[in-house]
Amino acid sequence: MQHRTVHDVMTQEVVTTRPDTPFKEIAALFHRNDVTAVPVVDAQNRPLGMVSEADLIRKQVVMPDEDRDDYGRTLRWKDQARAEAETAGGLMTSPAITAHPGWSIPQAARAMEKHHVKRLPVVDEVGRMIGIVSRRDLLQVFMRHDPAIREEIVHDVLGETLWLPEDSVQVHVHDGVVTLTGRVPRKSLIAVAERLCRSVDGVVSVHQTLDFTEDDTRIDLERPSAHGSPHRHHA
C-alpha cells in the first residue's frame, strides 16, 4: 500500500518574509502574491513564525473610532502588543508549527487540528524550510478516482496484505465510500479489513456486511488446562 506524504502535496515555491519586514510591505506582499499568510524566516531560511491577514487586521481593531473611546480594550494584552507592532517579527504568531516531508496526510491534518492552524511550513532534517502545506493541499487525496481506490483495496489490501481468496469479498466504491460484502475465513479479519480500507488514500468511509466462516474471537471457557482439567466458568 502506497500513501501520499506531505512532500507529495506541499507547495515548494513559498513566499516568505523576514522579521524586520515592515507592516505595509507585508500587506503588499499578500496582495501581489494572492496569499493570506506567509512564513517569517531567519537568515538560514528556518521558519520563526507565521504572519497572516488576521495578524494585520488587529491594527484596525486598535484604531481610534470617533463613535467609541474604548478602542483596543477588547484585545488581550498579548494581542494588543502584536496589534501595535510595526514589523513581521512583532506581528507573527510564533513559534512556527512545522511539518516534515515524510509525514502522512493524516499526521499533518492532526497537527493542524491540534494547534488550530491552517498551514504548516515544511522543514528538512536541519530545520530549513523546503515548502508549505495547507488544508487545501491535504484535501487533494480526496480527488482520487473511485476505480483507483477500488483497485488498491482489491489488490493491495485484500490480496497482497490479507491474502483473502479471490472474489471472496466484493468491493464497491462510490464517491469515496467503500462497501464490502462477502465472506472472510475468520471473524477477526473483518475489523482488520475495515481498518486497512479506511487508511487507503481517498477513502471517505467504509461500510461492510461481511460474513465469516470461523469465529476466532470467542474464548473457549472449557479449553483443557496444562494439567488436563478443563477451565470452566462458575457463576
Provide a quick synopsis of the model.
By secondary structure, this protein is an alpha/beta fold.
| Annotation, overall tally of beta strands | 8
Query: Can you identify the CATH superfamily of the largest domain?
Result: CBS-domain
By CATH, the architecture of the largest domain is named Roll
Order of helices and strands: HHEEHHHHEEHHEEHEE
- The mean pLDDT is 88
Strand content: 15-25%
Poorly predicted sequence stretches spanning 5 or more consecutive residues:
none
| CATH class value of the largest domain | Alpha Beta
Q: Bin the helical content.
A: 25-40%
CATH topology of the largest domain, what is it called? CBS-domain
Radius of gyration: 27 Å
* Mass-distribution shape: elongated
DSSP summary: helix tally: 9
Instruction: Report the span from N to C terminus.
Output: 48 Å
- Any idea how many domains? 2
Query: Helix/strand-derived class?
Result: alpha/beta
Mind describing the biggest β-sheet? 4 strands, mixed
